[in-house]
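Section 5.1 Outputs to date
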Amino acid sequence: MPIVYEQPLNERMRTFLRLEFLYTQASITASRPTLGVRARRLRALLEILAITARGDSRSEVLKELERHVNVLKEYQTKTGSTPAASSP
């Protein structure tokens, strides 16, 4: 069941939610080869490009990604696991 948000509190969160929605839409339509689905996928990808082309959005996304990478690295060092050790 998808997570439903009543009303995001700020523009940053609305942008991230929109990017998540568009990415999901583009991913789902990737496996369906019909013309209408291709058009929807292209529209979603172009909208992602338009959002990320804005300088403020791009810097916000990069900051957030860096924050998540740092959190994951910190978790990895605390648990002592390596990517190779965690895969079966």
